Design the sequence.
């Protein structure tokens, strides 16, 4: 009997432990891949993969160790949490032994279900530590080729030409090389490199580039915070002689008065600071720091500007090495870069090559994108190639840079002989076309041994969403917006990848939900919050752009719809990902900004700013034309106060909560007194934005809601369903219409190309979202600020959203809008807890919907049918599935409450 019992137990145990696949996609600081942490107590998270319906995590256990073997064996732990009850799977703080600088750690996790079933241990994941003791940087000096004289500094920057600055900003900065040789004195166990090259660096070890970053590190307000990059270079180090080298460009730290510049700015010439920590097998440690023993020389980059382009002369010898100069670096805190780095993400070959002249050719890459060129060429020494990129062409078929920053170009002088390959290192542009001009004694007209590629560069945040439908135009619109987004995801959320490259704030919250559905922006948006905290002025103002490298004037520095990102973004980030600590970090900034707005208000009405920027009116686009500036400013002021009351509640600031609720009530009363004609249900001018913002933000009293919403729809119908709302208003227009159940109208407004809008842009040749609804040539043709429809593609058509008062996608809602004109929609969203899939299709006789809900979450599925008895799930009645129950009605729609798993409905 005993033997039988043992056999049975051996058979049952694997079944119990394998009821759940092992936890996967382990994250540290909500990041996968190369993770370097500086926090004393980093945060852990994971995804639960299981096909089991209704799975709920009831407990978890994390183990952290110094080696993979110890991690797998559960030995040598620096932290063993033991079994902790709870369903938390994200933002779990490390509570083990103190972490040490420059050490790699390994960790694993297992979980238990609500039924007591244990998963297998996950595969070990890894992270390594940055420089945990700030004093450690004292030994690493800032070094440069030369130091910028204090008398030549231009900080803050001066907008545009700066021709009144005398000698300031005239000189080209030397783009220097730095080099240090050293001996590795034993068998290397681990080696970590920490480097901050400002503006941007490319560092190599033994002739091999370290990492695959572009424009590293990210850009900040350097006197508040200076980022450094952390790399594991164990595999690149060798016993004996080694050489570390770096080339450093100017970035936003030095922009001289040459070629195009959005600003003239002279903070400093290129400099670098570096620590290399080598740990040997025998337990000893060696450190290499930047100091006066390093050597420097001019590189072959003869000109580099983030705004103007880059020149490279391969004929120049690398000589003239000299001792480095110890320079004064920025005073901001050294912080490891936690955001995903910029990288080359896609490569485009030319779709067409056109001969313009004897030695002049035009390349068309078929896609307007942020990036640089890769030149492959063979020619004679001294041959010169000038490359002029452009997003559109003029009436003569030549590059048109008037709206994107002119002149901008790349220049390459050949070394001669073998085939040469060149890519710019410290600049980028937005372009689809590139004109190549060849200056040579050779006859290039017959000997065109030259190829050109477009290298698309952007923030490498992982893709988390996908959308497609039966409507080709809708799919094109999704791609159009996506290219506007991809081209403007950098170290900040830029508005265009050429003319500006600045972090304009309004789009971060207005298009933030669209970004969230497509990319993991937790780290990027955390960085933007830090930028806002550091950019806030003493009086509380958060400027329209951060980092504020150049102060603008009027609404371009102080517009409530822009600065309110300081309140809205922390709240949205908390909603999307569930990280409570974001609210506490940003709370002082949020309070100070709301207080600042109060100093600008007249009887709770704000009247300053840009308003509904680039709305579609009778004049050229710019400041709001159709909607009073005071309406959008005051509506945003109310939204800020209302959100801050919720935030104060979430972090336990009860007295503040009461004060903010009172302020919100007072603003609401003043707003309706000023803008609402209660009898007619008309707000202000009756523009789309005038109706939409009060509806979405909760400013409309319950007794007026139906009339105001009906008036909004009537106004759209009266204009033949054409859109007019701008940068600010269009997002709220879509939100208000979706909430009213008017997705059919949204579809009809956008499924067209005969009036300015997305389809119109595509019809007129756009491949990335443009700055203006009619795709005007004299403004940018690669912007993301009007891309609000993408949010509706996911939340409306696919119906993927959160239940009210959910934080971190734990309580999901699936409410697809099966509009007339579409036969099917398929979408997915990799939430912080796992992937949500939705696929619906319909015919005249039958509708079907398949849904996947991630483990450890629940969902309400809202189906467009009023009779629950007509719904089948996998051919069975709803009551046959114990993980599903009828939960009531939403209007004339059935609500089904389900646990995790895969479901297939027909009705």
Sequence:
């Amino acid at each position: 009997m005993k033997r039988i019992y043992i056999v049975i137990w051996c058979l049952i145990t694997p079944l119990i432990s394998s009821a759940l696949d092992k936890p996967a996609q382990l994250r540290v600081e909500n990041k996968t891949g190369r993770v370097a942490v500086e926090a004393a107590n980093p945060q852990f998270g994971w995804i639960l993969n299981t096909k089991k319906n209704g799975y709920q995590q009831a407990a978890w256990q994390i183990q952290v160790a110094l080696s993979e073997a110890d991690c797998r064996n559960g030995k040598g732990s620096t932290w063993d949490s033991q079994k902790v009850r709870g369903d938390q799977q994200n933002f779990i703080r490390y509570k083990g032994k103190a972490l040490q600088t420059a050490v790699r750690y390994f960790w694993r996790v297992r979980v238990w279900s609500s039924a007591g079933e244990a998963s297998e241990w996950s595969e070990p994941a890894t992270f390594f530590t940055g420089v945990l003791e700030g004093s450690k940087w004292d030994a690493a000096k800032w070094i440069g080729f030369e130091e910028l004289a204090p008398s030549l500094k231009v900080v803050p920057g001066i907008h545009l030409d700066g021709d009144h600055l005398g000698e300031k900003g005239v000189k080209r900065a030397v783009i220097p090389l730095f080099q240090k040789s050293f001996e590795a004195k034993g068998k290397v166990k681990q080696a970590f490199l920490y480097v901050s090259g400002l503006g941007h660096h490319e560092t190599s070890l033994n002739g091999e580039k370290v990492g695959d970053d572009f424009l590293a590190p990210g850009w900040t307000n350097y006197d508040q915070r200076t980022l450094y990059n952390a790399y594991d270079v164990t595999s690149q180090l060798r016993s004996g002689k080694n050489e570390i080298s770096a080339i450093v460009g100017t970035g936003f730290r030095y922009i001289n008065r040459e070629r195009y510049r959005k600003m003239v700015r002279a903070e400093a010439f290129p400099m670098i600071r570096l620590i290399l920590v080598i740990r040997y097998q025998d337990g000893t440690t060696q450190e290499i720091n930047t100091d006066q023993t390093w050597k420097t020389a001019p590189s072959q980059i003869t000109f580099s500007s983030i705004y103007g382009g880059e020149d490279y002369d391969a004929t120049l010898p690398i000589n003239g090495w000299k001792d480095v100069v110890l320079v004064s670096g920025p005073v901001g805190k050294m912080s490891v870069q936690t955001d995903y780095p910029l990288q080359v993400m896609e490569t485009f070959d030319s779709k067409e090559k056109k001969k313009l002249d004897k030695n002049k050719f035009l390349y068309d890459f078929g896609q307007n994108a942020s990036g640089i060129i890769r030149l492959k060429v063979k020619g004679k020494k001294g041959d010169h190639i000038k490359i002029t990129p452009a997003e559109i062409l003029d009436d003569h078929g030549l590059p048109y840079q008037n709206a994107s920053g002119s002149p901008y170009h790349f220049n390459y002088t050949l070394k001669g002989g073998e085939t040469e390959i060149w890519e710019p290192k410290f600049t980028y542009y937005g372009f689809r076309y590139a004109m190549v001009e060849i200056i040579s004694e050779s006859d290039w007209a017959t000997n065109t041994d030259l190829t050109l590629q477009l290298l698309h560069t952007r923030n490498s945040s992982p893709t988390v969403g996908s959308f497609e439908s039966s409507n080709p135009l809708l799919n094109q619109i999704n791609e159009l917006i996506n290219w506007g987004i991809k081209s403007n995801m950098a170290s900040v959320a830029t508005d265009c990848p050429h003319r500006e490259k600045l972090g304009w704030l309004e789009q971060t919250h207005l298009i933030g939900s669209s970004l969230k559905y497509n990319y993991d922006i937790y780290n990027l948006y955390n960085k933007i919050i830090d930028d806002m905290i550091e950019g806030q002025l003493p009086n509380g103002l958060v400027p329209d752009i951060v980092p504020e490298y150049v102060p603008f004037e009027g609404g371009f520095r102080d517009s409530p719809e822009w600065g309110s990102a300081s309140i809205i973004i922390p709240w949205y980030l908390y909603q999307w990902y569930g990280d409570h600590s974001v609210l506490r970090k940003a709370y002082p900034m949020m309070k100070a900004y709301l207080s600042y707005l109060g100093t600008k208000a007249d009887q709770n009405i704000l009247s300053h700013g840009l308003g509904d920027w680039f709305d579609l009116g009778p004049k050229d686009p710019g400041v709001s034309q159709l909607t009073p500036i005071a309406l959008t400013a005051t509506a945003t002021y109310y939204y800020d106060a209302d959100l801050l009351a919720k935030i104060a509640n979430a972090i336990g600031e009860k007295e503040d909560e009461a004060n903010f609720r009172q302020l919100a009530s007072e603003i609401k009363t003043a707003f309706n007194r000023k803008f609402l004609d209660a009898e007619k249900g008309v707000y202000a001018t009756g523009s789309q934005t005038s109706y939409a913002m009060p509806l979405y933000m909760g400013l409309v009293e319950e007794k007026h809601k139906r009339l105001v919403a009906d008036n909004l729809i009537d106004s759209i119908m009266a204009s033949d369903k054409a859109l007019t709302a701008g940068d600010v208003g269009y997002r709220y227009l879509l939100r208000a219409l979706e909430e009213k159940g008017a997705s059919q109208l949204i579809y009809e407004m956008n499924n067209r190309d005969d009036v300015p809008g997305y389809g119109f842009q595509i019809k007129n040749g756009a491949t990335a979202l443009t700055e203006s609804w009619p795709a005007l040539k004299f403004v940018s043709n690669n912007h993301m600020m009007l891309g609000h429809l993408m949010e509706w593609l996911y939340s409306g058509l696919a119906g993927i959203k959160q239940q009210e008062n959910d934080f971190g996608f734990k309580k999901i809602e699936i409410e697809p809008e099966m509009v007339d004109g579409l036969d099917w929609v398929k979408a997915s969203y990799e939430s912080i807890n796992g992937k949500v899939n939705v696929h619906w299709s319909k015919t005249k006789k039958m509708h079907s919907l398949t849904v996947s809900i991630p483990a450890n979450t629940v969902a309400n599925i809202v189906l467009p049918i009023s009779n629950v008895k007509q719904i089948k799930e996998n051919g069975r009645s709803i009551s046959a599935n114990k993980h599903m129950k009828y939960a009531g009605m939403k209007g004339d729609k059935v609500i089904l409450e389900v646990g995790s798993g895969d479901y297939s409905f027909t009705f």
Remarks:
- The domain at 134-339 is CATH 2.60.120.260 (Jelly Rolls).
